[in-house]
């Protein structure tokens, strides 16, 4: 009977992790999507000084210039281009991320009675890699929508149908750039979870609720920011692989490392960090939102429904 109760308790805990993670992902993407669109636009354009204007279209000279030009040429709704794939993907994506992270922590304790920084990092790497496999098709559709500068937006279904019709479901179609997505998400979550939980366990807690909230917000923001610095070359490679190629009909960006090499040789080291500012603007506060919504939602579910 005790074992059965334990099993039920474990199942409920996993279900709460799924619900809290999905809620956190949905809220975060709705708030931060405009910065993701700007990040993608900046990443997919080549550096004019060396490569000329990207696809003969308008060039963006930074985050606020991109926001302004998108508003003038495409309208305010363009800030949420490609929103449906993340909404459809973020709930299961974040649910997978937090569920896998929480469930794999014991596997990476390696005999230690309590989780170590290595435990958090390896569990985060595992969670990020698995979520990447699940969401990569949505990422391909999202990038295609975000790269489209036409004022009239195509539906998510129409874009996905076009990709499948032209390139299929494989590594040239709906699953292109999967290794770059795995590298991006795996590295990000390794740093993100490793930093957040390790620092949170070291920095003393506050008795005052508002100070404790700010402590977690600050650590979450720093975790998301640091992870952005580490993983952005993978993000640039992913955007180049999944976005429109410089010459229609010719695939220039194929593999993750080869794409990084091309960007470095043709545009310089700084080009590997394109889109860093909007990425930090999104995933710094976004990282804090995600972890805090998960923690408070999870605690609420445990206290009220267990």
What is the SS-derived class?
mainly alpha
Q: Which oligomeric form is depicted?
A: single chain
Distance between the termini: 17 Å
Helix segment tally: 10
* Poorly predicted tracts of residues: 1-8, 50-57
Largest sheet data:
none
Overall pLDDT level: 86
Topology of this protein?
Layout: H1 2-44, H2 48-51, H3 63-74, H4 84-104, H5 117-147, H6 156-167, H7 178-202, H8 209-242, H9 256-267, H10 276-305
Helix pairs in contact: 1-4, 1-10, 4-5, 5-6, 5-7, 7-8, 8-9, 8-10
Structure, briefly:
With 306 residues, this protein is mostly helical. Helices cover 73% and strands 0% of the residues.
What features would you describe in this structure?
- Helix 7 (178-202) packs antiparallel against helix 8 (209-242).
- With 306 residues, the protein is mainly alpha-helical.
- It has helices at residues 2-44, 48-51, 63-74, 84-104, 117-147, 156-167, 178-202, 209-242, 256-267, 276-305.
- The radius of gyration is 20 Å and the shape is globular.
- The chain contains ten helices and no strands.
């Amino acid at each position: 009977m005790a074992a059965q109760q334990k099993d039920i308790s474990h199942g409920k805990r996993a279900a709460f992790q799924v619900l809290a993670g999905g809620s956190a992902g949905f809220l975060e993407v709705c708030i931060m999507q405009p910065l993701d669109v700007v990040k993608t636009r900046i990443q997919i354009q080549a550096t004019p000084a060396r490569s000329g204007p990207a696809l003969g279209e308008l060039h963006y000279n930074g985050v606020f210039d991109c926001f302004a030009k998108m508003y003038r040429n495409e309208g305010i709704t363009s800030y949420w281009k490609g929103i449906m794939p993340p909404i459809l993907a973020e709930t299961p994506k974040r649910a997978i991320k937090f569920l896998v992270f929480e469930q794999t922590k014991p596997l990476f304790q390696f005999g230690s009675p309590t989780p170590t920084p290595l435990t958090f990092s390896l569990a985060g790497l595992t969670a990020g890699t698995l979520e990447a496999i699940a969401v990569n098709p949505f990422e391909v559709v999202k990038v295609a929508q975000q790269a489209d500068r036409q004022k009239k937006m195509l539906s998510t279904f129409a874009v996905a149908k076009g990709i499948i019709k032209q390139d299929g479901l494989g590594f040239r179609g709906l699953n292109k750039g999967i290794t770059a997505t795995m590298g991006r998400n795996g590295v990000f979550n390794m740093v993100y979870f490793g930093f957040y939980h390790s620092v949170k366990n070291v920095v003393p807690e506050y008795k005052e609720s508002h100070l404790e909230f700010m402590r977690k917000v600050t650590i979450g923001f720093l975790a998301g920011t640091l992870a952005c610095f580490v993983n952005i070359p993978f993000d640039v490679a992913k955007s180049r692989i999944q976005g429109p190629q410089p010459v229609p009909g010719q695939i220039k960006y194929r593999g993750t490392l080869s794409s990084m090499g091309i960007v470095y040789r043709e545009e310089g080291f700084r080009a590997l960090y394109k889109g860093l500012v909007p990425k930090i603007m999104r995933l710094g506060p976004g990282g804090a939102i995600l972890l805090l919504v998960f923690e408070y939602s999870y605690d609420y579910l445990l206290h009220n429904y267990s």
